[in-house]
Amino acid sequence: MAADFHTAFNVLLAILLLFILDPLSAVLIRMLPDRQQSADPSPPLLLDGSIMGTPPVALAGAARETLHMGDLVEGMLNQAIVALRTNDRKLVAQISRTDNAVDRLYEAIKLCVTKATNRLKVSDAAAQIEADPPTSGQLSADSRPPCERSQPVLPDVSGRG
Q1: Half-sphere exposure of 5 (CA within 13 A, CB side)
Q2: Which of 69, 89, 98, 141 is the 20 to 30 A CA-CA neighbour of 42?
């Protein structure tokens, strides 16, 4: 009995919402502005200075911008095919501008990845020092990092020793 009531209730709500959708969509279209497309696609949308403090977020933003760059390159290739078939000089100029935008985007991505990985290296080194702080004897005896001081893991199979 309760299941029948819930089913009937859901069907009535669905029918009611069907009549409300058109007026609701008209109101939302008037309320929400159209997304304005930038004339220059090169400024990175997801790589701002605020995310550089969190390297994983910065690297995720760089990955998404790399996908955006791939979309731009795909568009350039499609436009190049059309430009070659139609001998359209204006389209070639547009492809060249997009290529410059892709180059700027690539530089921004490269800079972000470099900064993020440097921050990761610094934080990893700090975590290693916190986990195993060196004593003064360790620092004076051998100043190499622990990974360079360790013994080889594989046995010597060369037969020379």
Answers
A1: 2
A2: 89
Sequence-distant (6+) residues with CB within 8 A of 113 are: 58, 59, 62
Please state, as a whole number, how many other Cβ atoms lie within 10 Å of the Cβ of residue 95.
18
Rounded CA-CA distance 57/54 in Å is 6
Dihedral sign of CA atoms 121, 123, 124, 125 in order: positive
Q: Is residue 62 very low, low, confident or very high in pLDDT (cuts 50, 70, 90)?
A: confident
**pTM > 0.90:** no
Domain layout of the chain by residue ranges: 75-124
Residue 41: which of 100, 88, 113 has the closest Cα?
100
Q: Is pLDDT of 136 > 70?
A: no
* Three-state secondary structure call for residue 72: helix
